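Input sequence (113 aa), recorded before submission:
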Amino acid sequence: MPRLCGSTACPAHLAPRPSIVARHQGLRHDRSGPAASFEIIANQAKVEVDAVKPESTLKDLGVASLEAIELIFDIEEHFDIHFPDQQGANFDSDTAQSLVDAVQKALDEKAAG
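Predicted structure, token format:
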């Protein structure tokens, strides 16, 4: 990744970030199911989706803290949800299943209005 200069006029800062749709068009599973979350996790971890197990932690999958932040943004954008700011990920202990559960909770809250 190129080092950013710190200037908001820098072309690197102005380059659009590929949308979640563009990066995840190849999802093989239901857009709203747990499998979609696992595929987004696998994409960010650069592993096959079969390597993502419910008990896998982000650390186990080699997802660094900055990548995990992007992962949270990707999940929020994909499912059109928002996680509360105080709901940070614990990269050593949070599992793929805990992310699926958090997505489901956010979807349920969104549906409840």
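Checked by second reader. Confidence is low (pLDDT under 50) at residues 1-30.
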